[in-house]
C-alpha cells in the first residue's frame, strides 16, 4: 500500500504538470475565455491576434498571435493554450 503522504505528493505533482500544459505559448494558438460579459474578439484583434475559430465555451475564441500583445489588450479574460483539436488555419 502507498503511504498517504506519497499519494498526496504524487497527485500534487501530476496536477502541476497538467497545469503546465495549459499555460499559453509566447506565440501560437490560444484559447481566450471572457471572465465577464465583455467581448474578447475586438480587443484580441486589436492586439494583433488572428481569429482561428470559436471556442468551446460561450464567448470564447481561439486565436493565433503573440501572448504579450494579446494579454495587454484582453485584460478581462483567461488565456490558455488552445486544445490541439480546435486549432485550424488562421482566417
Plain-language structure description:
33% of the residues lie in helices and 26% in strands. The chain has three helices and four strands; from the N terminus they run αβαββαβ. It has a four-stranded antiparallel β-sheet with strand order 2-3-1-4. It is elongated. The termini are far apart. The model has no long low-confidence stretch (mean pLDDT 81).
Note the topology:
Layout: H1 4-20, E1 27-34, H2 41-46, E2 50-54, E3 61-66, H3 67-73, E4 77-81
Antiparallel strand pairs: 1-3, 1-4, 2-3
The residue fraction in helices comes out at 25-40%
What is the mean predicted local confidence, pLDDT? 81
Radius of gyration: 16 Å
For the terminal residues, how far apart are their CA atoms? 53 Å
Low-pLDDT ranges: none
The largest sheet, given as strand count, sense and whether it forms a barrel, is: 4 strands, antiparallel
Number of beta-strand segments: 4
The amount of beta strand, in percent, is 25-35%
Within the largest sheet, what's the order of strands? 2-3-1-4
Rough outline: elongated
Structural class from helices and strands? alpha+beta
| Count of alpha/pi helices | 3
What is the N-to-C order of secondary-structure elements (H for helix, E for strand)? HEHEEHE
Amino acid at each position: 500500500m502507498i503511504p498517504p503522504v506519497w499519494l498526496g505528493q504524487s497527485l500534487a505533482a501530476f496536477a502541476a504538470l497538467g497545469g503546465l500544459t495549459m499555460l499559453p505559448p509566447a506565440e501560437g494558438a490560444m484559447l481566450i475565455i471572457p471572465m465577464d460579459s465583455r467581448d474578447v474578439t475586438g480587443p484580441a484583434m486589436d492586439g494583433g491576434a488572428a481569429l482561428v475559430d470559436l471556442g468551446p465555451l460561450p464567448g470564447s475564441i481561439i486565436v493565433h498571435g503573440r501572448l504579450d500583445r494579446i494579454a495587454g489588450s484582453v485584460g478581462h479574460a483567461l488565456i490558455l493554450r488552445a486544445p490541439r483539436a480546435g486549432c485550424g488555419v488562421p482566417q
